[in-house]
Amino acid sequence: MKLWGGRFQKETDEKVNDFNSSIRFDSRMYRQDITGSIAHASMLGRQGIIPQEDSDLIVKTLQEILTDIEAGSIEFDIDAEDIHMNVEKILSERIGDAGKRLHTGRSRNDQVALDLRMYVMDELKTILGMVKDAQQTILCIAKDNLDTIMPGYTHLQKAQPITLAHHVMAYFEMFKRDAMRLSDCLKRTSVMPLGSGALAATTYPLDRDFVAQQLGFDMVSLNSLDGVSDRDFAIEAASALSILMMHLSRFCEELILWNSNEFSFVEMDDAYSTGSSIMPQKKNPDVAELIRGKTGRVYGGLMTLLTMMKGIPLAYNKDMQEDKEAIFDCIDTVKLCLPVFTGMLATLKFNKDVMYRGSGKGFTNATDAADYLVKKGLPFRSAHEVLGKLVFYCIQHDKALDALTLEEFHQFSDIFEADVYDAIRLETCVNMRNITGGPAKEAVERAIAAGEAFLKTIEKG
């Protein structure tokens, strides 16, 4: 008989039992469920709600059950529906009536809300550590490539010269925002709902603050209806993870392009590449492609959570059982992608000469040539027009700007002098941009220092 079966005269249909059960996926929360129950049982004894000897026995037995689960000596029962009922059933089988006192003053509604919050908090801390690892790898690449000049792009067209250090530090900033979002989500997840009951709290004199303190929560929920029916924290976590995956996907897309023969900016390490079953020459960037593809899974989890919650009246509804598989898959996917992404990144071989040669094509120094005229007194719009005509001339004659003679420059403006050649050198173009956020070596060194300071603020899970 089910633990809630007192008012029922018929057994649950077998198909309904399978349909209703969540143990196949929520069993992963066994540690959070048992830890939460230990805190609850300790509080019940402390408050005199149940005998202290029963409280002590429950705590001791729950610890033993946790050890047995982790040793693989317990098989969960699908008839017990979920991890919460399974643990309580095992407890009652071991210690009888004392175990049946554990559920005093709580409902599965606030129990599952507690377990899920604890699980999400634990996993977000782990993911924060993985993000930090990726950021540290980016910093290492940046430090090694402060002088590695490469073309910067807009519309996937060569635009202006930058450095590889500047380019990868853009992703450091993206991951920094990801870390901040995950940290902020942790704050809003750290709200202890136990004590909300099914929806209207309880008549027992629970010490909710004690339980919150025991479990490491920052605060307790202030409305019992919201306590059992809030899943904002799961939606927010899925949103933050979706944005993180979007950043991973963007970086992977660039690496896929750079790894192509057309770019040849990077070469993937053999350990992070695969071959073809028919074409012996192939070395495919499958790791980067898979990360790009798995981004859609995380987006799907976010949409599942948003759609599931959008029409649910207060308080708890069975629809909310669907929250777990969605957020679990988001978490699992990110945890699968981040370490392999970091390993792939750390083992990349950058073809610096190819990057430099690429920077010299596509007139990436045209803006600097226009700025040269502006600094000589010509209005920017006029300078822009002069350079537009110069670029067209170069295209017609298959020349680069720095290959023009001074006489050719003078065909378009008498302002040009011999110092124009230094002004449009790639190194000058990069290192003159020394303002905060710029690609100059000194500016990027300052950004790296700021990045290192930021990482010290992130606690690794």
Strand content: under 5%
Total helical elements: 20
User: What structural class results from the helix and strand content?
Assistant: mainly alpha
The residue ranges in which pLDDT falls below 50 over 5 or more consecutive positions are: none
Through-space gap between termini = 41 Å
Helix and strand arrangement:
Elements: H1 14-20, H2 23-26, H3 30-46, H4 52-70, H5 83-95, H6 97-100, H7 108-144, E1 149-154, E2 157-163, H8 164-189, E3 191-192, H9 208-215, E4 219-220, H10 224-229, H11 232-259, E5 266-267, H12 286-309, H13 323-346, E6 349-350, H14 352-359, H15 366-375, H16 380-397, H17 406-410, H18 420-423, H19 426-431, H20 441-455
Parallel strand pairs: 3-4
Antiparallel strand pairs: 1-2, 5-6
Description:
With 461 residues, this protein is mainly α. It is 61% helix and 5% strand. It is built from 20 helices and six strands. The strands form three sheets. Strands 1-2 form a two-stranded antiparallel ribbon. Strands 3-4 form a two-stranded parallel sheet. Helix 11 packs antiparallel against helix 12 (286-309). The two termini are 41 Å apart. The model has no long low-confidence stretch (mean pLDDT 94).
